[in-house]
Amino acid sequence: MMNRLWRLISSQSILWLSMVTSVQTATLSAANERSHDETLLESMARGRQWLLTHQHPDGWWSTQDHPAVTAFALMALEGASHDAKDASLSEAMQRGYEFIEQHIHPDGGIHNIGLVTYNTAICMMALAVSGQDQYQASIVKAREYLIGLQSDFGQTGVLDHPMDGGIGYGSSYDHSDMGNTLQALEALHATRRLGSQDQGKKPEAALDYAAAIRFLQHCQNLASHNPEKWVSEDPVNKGGFVYYPGSSKAGEYPVPGTERVALRSYGSISYGGLLAYAYAQLDKQAPQVQAVIQWLRSNYTLEENPAMGLQGLFYYYHTMAKALTILEMDQLQLSNGQIVNWRKELTQKLTSIQKEDGSWLNDNGRWWERDPALVTSYAVLTLERIKTGQSSR
After folding, report:
1. Nearest one of 171, 71, 163 to 113, comparing CA atoms
2. Does any domain span residue 23?
3. Residue 207: how many CA atoms within 13 Å on its side-chain side?
4. How far apart are CA 235 and CA 250, in angstroms?
5. Which helix (H) or strand (E) is 333 found in, with range?
6. CATH number at residue 131
7. Domain limits at 172?
8. Does residue 2 lie in a domain region?
9. How far apart, in whole angstroms, are the C-alpha atoms of residue 214 and residue 116?
10. DSSP E strand boundaries for 175-258
11. Which pLDDT score is estimated for 166?
């Protein structure tokens, strides 16, 4: 009798301990989630406050030469404007939009001294997220401007050149490139609801998305879809992207046993390629998309921009968050089978390297990343993308 009673008491104790442990685990998980969310929101708020206090009285951030930097800051501050009605914030943002308006050209371009594709695309996105109807006509005109920049280097109307279908700097450079093509595709995607026609006027010309996809393929290290001689089947590079056909910011290397020179894939532009394919409406299951996803799985890291070190690190973070969010990849299974919660890891990384004053800065100045206004905007927008992606699930 005593043995049966002891076994009953023991089994009930084990059940009780199991229930307590389960409750404690669930409570700890919920607390960690709250801590993560609170950390993310606090970090964004500090970054936005830094931006708010570092605006020039004339409305711009960092430079008057490239209004895109101001546009990035405005987009980073837009989230705060939705969270709270603050007069000083509204006034600062209005000054910023007025500064951008000063650089709208009659042909639809939005720029000052150069980089016309980049500046136009970023500025038109900032005007779009403002939600102000007064900018609709300017956005429609800017869309037409970007569409008109799509390249045709060979015989007119024929896709006979590797640069055809892409978009370049809109200046003297004799090539299309991934950076400008991505920015144009993103801006057109972000403003697509205005893309049919403007208040009864004739419809705008359409971007040739098939040609754009063909250009993207010519920037991908994937021999099945890219006939260029520099393409590598080396697993280290296969599936990733380079900056434009024949040129990689990560450099080149001789192919062993041949006289060929191959180009190295690198992180930020490979996430850019994944994102560009999404904006160009290429199916997620397409082999080009799956190939770049596989490259990114094999090269996942938050310590550097793969194959580029610290160069373009914050642009890498920003593009990663956009690409994985738009493809609804909440977790990333790496090539070794490990599953990572990239949202949480990226939040932890960004909050750990935020400056005491709320800003972010890359000690490597490549691609303007020693500019705290630009880099802080990148970081805030990355955290905003993480937050939005979490709340939409």
Report:
1. 171
2. no
3. 31
4. 16
5. strand 332-333
6. 1.50.10.20
7. 42-308
8. no
9. 23
10. 252-254
11. 97
With both helix axes pointing from N to C terminus, report the angle between 2-53 and 67-83 in degrees, rounded to the nearest 10.
130
In a domain, 47, yes or no: yes
293 neighbors 323 (Cβ within 8 angstroms): no
How many CB atoms are closer than 10 A to CB 220? Answer: 27
For residue 8, give the H/E element and its range: helix 2-53
Looking at residue 241, what DSSP letter applies? B
pLDDT digits (tens, 9 = 90+) for 204-263: 789 999 999 999 999 999 999 999 999 988 999 999 999 999 999 999 999 888 888 999
> What span, in angstroms and rounded, lies between the C-alpha atoms of 133 and 137?
8
* Residue-wise pLDDT tens digits, 117-166: 999 999 999 999 998 999 999 999 999 999 999 998 877 878 889 999 99
139 occurs within a structural domain? yes
What letter represents residue 215's amino acid? F
The three-state secondary structure class of 2 is helix
Q: How confident is the model at residue 88 (pLDDT cuts 50, 70, 90)?
A: confident
Cβ pair 148, 117 in contact under 8 A: no
**CA distances, 361 to each of 356, 357, 379 (Å):** 11, 11, 10
The whole-angstrom distance between residue 284's C-alpha and the CA centroid of its chain comes to 17
Question: Which of the four pLDDT bands, split at 50, 70 and 90, describes residue 110?
Answer: very high
Lowest mean pLDDT, pick from 84-88, 117-121, 385-389: 84-88
pLDDT of residue 10: 54
| Dihedral sign from CA coordinates of 181, 182, 187, 189 | positive
* CA dihedral sign of residues 174, 180, 185, 189: negative
Query: In total, how many domains does the chain have?
Result: 1
